[in-house]
TrEMBL record:
One Pfam assignment: Troponin
Official protein name in the record: Troponin I, fast skeletal muscle
Key words, A-Z: Acetylation, Actin-binding, Coiled coil, Muscle protein
Protein function: Troponin I is the inhibitory subunit of troponin, the thin filament regulatory complex which confers calcium-sensitivity to striated muscle actomyosin ATPase activity.
Origin species: Geococcyx californianus (Greater roadrunner)
Coiled-coil segments: 18-106
Matches recorded under InterPro entries: Troponin, Troponin_I, Troponin_sf
Gene designation per UniProt: Tnni2
Entry's family note: Belongs to the troponin I family.
Length: 182
């Protein structure tokens, strides 16, 4: 049993090692992602928000303020539009999720039952109208049965075995058998 315990301990240690390795990997991935986002943000800001150089005269300063206000207004409009789009999309998502939930609730998938199906029916279901070959095994079985019943009929025609034995017993019976050529 000590061998089994050692095996178990080894498996647990391995599992722990794998777990810590995975967590370490995930942590480095998160750090990389954060760094990449920061770089992306800096690039965006450098492109869209050039460093501000303040002009010397009052006239130029007022002009710059007007430009900045216009820029702020356009950015605000853009932000508002984006928020509205986001809300719309979220609402659509919620509606679709609700529809999915409702559909799942209404139409419970029935448990599948075994269905007795002839080979013919199976081929018809699989191949549709292309199905031509007849594989009705039951019909073949019926034919065999018919032959069996004919044998049974022959036996019935022979009649009850007791009568036969009575007829064939004694000298009278032997005479009949001899004449019949049995």
């Amino acid at each position: 049993s000590s061998h089994l315990q050692k095996k178990r301990r080894a498996a647990t240690a391995r599992r722990q090692h794998l777990k810590s390795a995975m967590l370490q990997l995930a942590a480095t991935e998160i750090e990389k992602e954060a760094a990449a986002k920061e770089v992306e943000k800096q690039n965006y800001l450098a492109e869209h928000c050039p460093p501000l150089s303040l002009p010397g005269s009052m006239q130029e300063l007022q002009e710059l303020c007007k430009k900045l206000h216009a820029k702020i207004d356009s950015v605000d409009e853009e932000r508002y539009d984006t928020e509205v789009k986001l809300q719309k999309t979220n609402k659509e998502l919620e509606d679709l999720s609700q529809k999915l939930f409702d559909l799942r609730g209404k139409f419970k998938r029935p448990p599948l039952r075994r269905v007795r199906m002839s080979a013919d029916a199976m081929l018809r279901a699989l191949l549709g109208s292309k199905h031509k070959v007849c594989m009705d095994l039951r019909a073949n079985l019926k034919q065999v049965k018919k032959e069996d019943t004919e044998k049974e009929k022959d036996l019935r025609d022979v009649g009850d075995w007791r009568k036969n034995i009575e007829e064939k017993s004694g000298m009278e019976g032997r005479k009949k058998m001899f004449e019949a050529g049995e």
